[in-house]
Design brief:
By secondary structure, the chain is mainly α. Helix 3 crosses helix 5.
Length: about 170
């Protein structure tokens, strides 16, 4: 249940010190809370209901895929408003980046809706894969907190440098 501490220590400062009018902040808070809720329910079943395995693997994977699908759809809706780009930037293909729909994405015709399928699969693969990578790391005697501290420290420095009105010169 150490994940509860990690989730609170991420969400609370985010809600206190971030720009809450930014839709991406709310998307990050939603994803953190949703994946945290899946982990909490797994631990809850293990501790309170005395089920040794908690949620079975299929249920966890299904819930994680569902959350990742909701996030992918939210990103597609933001792309339709012009607030986000679903184009994948690949080196050496910068003149014509691969991506679903392009400017026609607002019309929602059948071929354009199908064009978002690779993006949805990509988002699901990245989010579910990242979540399970952390889960496997945490299974090795709680090593996820060490990785989290290193990544959070680096992101805190980068966030401060990019968001400070008077950025120090490096």
């Amino acid at each position: 249940m150490g994940g509860l501490l990690i989730v609170v220590s991420i969400v609370l400062p985010t809600l206190l010190w971030s720009d809450l009018s930014n839709k991406f902040v709310w998307l990050a808070v939603f994803s953190t809370l949703a994946f945290g809720a899946i982990g909490f329910s797994d631990d809850y079943l293990k501790v309170v209901h005395k089920q040794n395995l908690g949620l079975n693997g299929r249920s966890k994977l299904l819930l994680q895929t569902l959350v990742a699908f909701v996030i992918a759809v939210a990103l597609i809706l933001l792309q339709a408003r012009g607030l986000y780009s679903t184009h994948l930037m690949v080196p050496f293909f910068q003149a014509n980046p691969p991506g679903p729909g392009g400017e026609r994405a607002g019309r929602q015709s059948a071929p354009v809706a199908i064009a978002f399928l690779p993006f949805i699969i990509f988002v699901i693969f990245v989010l579910v894969g990242s979540t399970n990578a952390v889960n496997l790391t945490d299974g090795l005697d709680g090593l996820a907190i060490g990785c989290t501290l290193i990544a959070a420290g680096a992101l805190a420095v980068l966030t401060y440098l990019s968001g400070n009105a008077v950025s120090p010169t490096i």
